[in-house]
Design a protein that fits this description.
Order of helices and strands: EHEHEE
Radius of gyration: 15 Å
Number of helices: 2
Structural class: alpha+beta
Helix content: 10-25%
Shape: globular
Distance between the termini: 23 Å
Strand order of the largest sheet: 1-4-2-3
Length: 128
């Protein structure tokens, strides 16, 4: 939703309403790591792509997809290239309807040594 009085952006919404009866799926912070937990690269673009791949894997395991995400939280290490990271993930953050909610922050560091990005998501799936 884009309420009157707030900036209109094609990249994010300000409000999301989850329909009654929808299953809400929470995906904890994912990083650009492979299935052994090793950071895939020291490149923010490669880490960003793998991070979204990991979110997608988690969502699919719960019966959802990236298109079902209503809110994203994106954390980037302070000196990581914001433009490169968002350029790599922005097309996959979009949904088929209104753009999702997005919260982003620059942080001093992340829990996974060498990680430059961490992404969590909240999705809603209407049965049917």
């Amino acid at each position: 939703m884009q309420p009157a009085g707030l900036v209109v952006s094609p990249a994010f919404s300000h409000v999301a309403i989850v329909p009654a009866g929808a299953a809400t799926i929470y995906v904890g912070g994912q990083n650009g790591v492979d299935d052994t937990g090793a950071v895939v690269s020291d490149d923010v673009v490669e880490q960003s792509v793998r991070t979204i791949d990991n979110v997608s894997i988690a969502l699919e395991a719960a019966g959802a997809s990236l298109a079902d995400v209503v809110q994203w939280t994106v954390l980037l290490v302070a000196d990581a290239d914001l433009g490169a990271a968002y350029g790599a993930i922005a097309p996959r953050l979009a949904t088929s309807g209104a753009p999702p909610l997005v919260t982003a922050a620059r942080v001093a560091g992340l829990g996974v040594p060498g990680a430059l990005i961490e992404v969590s998501a909240i999705a809603a799936v209407v049965p049917g």
